[in-house]
């Protein structure tokens, strides 16, 4: 129910009487809504971000937009997680190089062929993880529930 009020009438008391309620006109920093128009908060995507992983084979595929590369990491990257020579040869054939600082196998992503590089990276990841699973004697459909 609403009724029109004249300027000389008082507004009725509410449950929030005496409490400052934030309005769209101002925020905590004191900037007005009009000042903030057009300033949208960006959702920050983690970099690098994961594309695919296999917990049984302990291999992950991810991309770093900052470094402009796709990368494959085996386990934690330590010497005990070093892939077999057949897997390393497969990575080298595909143009990947070992990055000892980050302990990853990386391939650059350039603007003109970025989409194809990502597609090729996912295919290579699938081949490599199957090779590792075969070496470990793991079934292709065997997954760890989470």
Poorly predicted sequence stretches spanning 5 or more consecutive residues: none
Count of distinct strands: 5
Major sheet size, sense and barrel closure: 5 strands, antiparallel
So how many helices? Answer: 3
Tell me the span between the first and last alpha carbons. Answer: 53 Å
| Beta content | 15-25%
Radius of gyration: 28 Å
Tell the overall outline: elongated
Structural class: alpha+beta
Q: State the strand order across the main sheet.
A: 1-2-3-5-4
The amount of helix comes to 10-25%
Task: Name the helix and strand elements from N-terminus to C-terminus, one letter apiece.
Answer: HEEEHEEH
Instruction: Provide mean pLDDT, rounded.
Output: 78
Describe the structure.
- The model has no long low-confidence stretch (mean pLDDT 78).
- This protein has three helices and five strands, in the order αβββαββα.
- The longest helix has 23 residues, at 114-136.
- The protein has a five-stranded antiparallel β-sheet, with helices on one face.
- It starts with 32 loop residues before the first helix and ends in a 10-residue tail after the last helix.
- Helices cover 25% and strands 18% of the residues.
- By secondary structure, the protein is an alpha+beta fold.
- The radius of gyration is 28 Å and the shape is elongated.
What are the defining features of this structure?
5-stranded antiparallel sheet; alpha+beta; 5 strands; elongated; 146 residues
